[in-house]
Amino acid sequence: MLRELKRLKNVAAASLALLIGIGATMIPAHAADAPIWNSRRFISIAHAGGDLESPHSTIYAMKKALAAGANVLEMDVRLSSDNVLMIQHDDTVDRTTGDTGPVSSFTALQLQAMDNAYWFYPHCWSCHSQPIEDYALRGVRTGAVSPPEGYTPDDFGVATLLDVVNTFPGQRLNVEIKDGPTGMAGAEALAAFINSHGPSDRYVVASFDDAILDHFKELAPDVFTSPGLDLITSWFGTRGALPGHRVLQVPPFFGEIEVVTQQFVDDAHANGLGVWVWFNGDEDDVPATWVRLMALGVDGILTGKPAEAEPYIAAANAAAALAVTTTTAPVNTPEVAALANTGNDNFLWAVGVSTLIVGAMFVLAGRRRPTTLSR
How many CB atoms lie within 10 A of CB 88? Predict the structure, then answer.
């Protein structure tokens, strides 16, 4: 049985390589310098640093994601009690640390000292019901457990945005301003921070709250942004231009509504907008979905599994790079997003690749559709 599985694996790998080589010639060319954020056609965006492989939003997670091949680091920001921008998803520290209470009730130093890997368990960033021994990185921050080789206890605390910028000079960042009582103040603090820690084009800024994002844009009009929930919902019906915005960050599905379709991607690209797709968790952040989305021509995969996703993204980029060298078709490229592939050609290529890559893993038919926007 094992011998047969190995043989099938080898056949699939060889077929995949052949299909990529053949399929690449079917993909229209892309300008060599598209997009300005990265030379890759498809980019890997590490959600919370790769929160399904490493502790959510930690410097440790971000270092591992970049080492695995991620191009962009995604993070959320909230303000501490002393108005420091902290990398933190929830409005409390309860889900990831051994402490409890609102983020806004702690100083930056208090938050940095917390064990942000306290509840980390692979493929589930907020599981509190595992046996204690399963939380293998608990105690690294406090010195009770030795850090993995090459890392320090500081890599496991609640980081500040300044920590991230100083640790990863020049790294591209996708920053979401969280809503709530400090949302407007957070927008002001982030605008001031970017003005002091540019260049501004290393950032894309998002928020679900349109008012918060509008306030940020008033203060930092040159920073690339993704529209808020109300505006994206409106665009879903109108499909027109979105002046001032550069990227649409959306889930594959919202409830039973399929958001990211071929028409959605084509319409976004026609209006100079990149499409970055985020997931609700381990259930839909899977190879079958990554491959299907790249078949549609999305520009970024906002994954919690950057190490696992990298081979799939690299294979798609290898095909796209080969296509650039085998065609002379002229292409006009939007500022941030690489130009969309022609829908039918791109679809034919990626369906072939999908069949081989996914195989027995393709179990999407019975999956639960996300009904909340939790990113």
Answer: 28
Q: What is the pLDDT of residues 284-337, one digit of tens each?
A: 999 999 999 999 999 999 999 999 999 999 999 998 888 777 654 443 333 333
CB atoms < 10 A from the CB of 221, how many?
A: 11
| Two structure tokens written together for 182 | 């400090």
* CB neighbourhood size of 347 (10 A): 18
Tokens of 7: 């043989």
Which one-letter DSSP state was computed for residue 254?
Answer: E
Question: pLDDT of 75-119, one tens digit each?
Answer: 999 999 999 999 999 999 999 999 999 999 999 999 999 999 999
Spatial separation of the C-alpha atoms in residues 248 and 167, rounded to whole Å: 28
Distance CA 329, CA 176 (A): 37
Q: Which two tokens stand for residue 345?
A: 């050609």
Residue with tokens 């292409």: 331
d(CA 305, CA 46): 7
CA–CA dist 333, 305 (Å, integer) = 29
Q: Token pair of 59, please? A: 């410097």
Structure tokens at 232: 């994206």
Omega within 30 of 0 (cis) for the link into 35: yes
Q: Which fold has domain 14-73+168-366?
A: TIM Barrel (3.20.20)
The DSSP code sequence of 268-308 is HHHTT-EEEEE-SSTTTSSHHHHHHHHHHT-SEEEES-HHH
d(CA 284, CA 309): 13
Backbone dihedral region of 250: left (phi > 0), alpha (psi from -120 to 50 degrees) or beta? beta
Q: Cα dist. 284→52, 251, 253, 287, 347 in Å?
A: 12, 10, 10, 9, 20
Measure the CA–CA gap between 193 and 199, rounded to whole angstroms: 11
E strand segments, the chain: 43-46, 72-79, 85-87, 172-177, 203-206, 224-225, 247-250, 253-254, 257-258, 274-278, 300-303
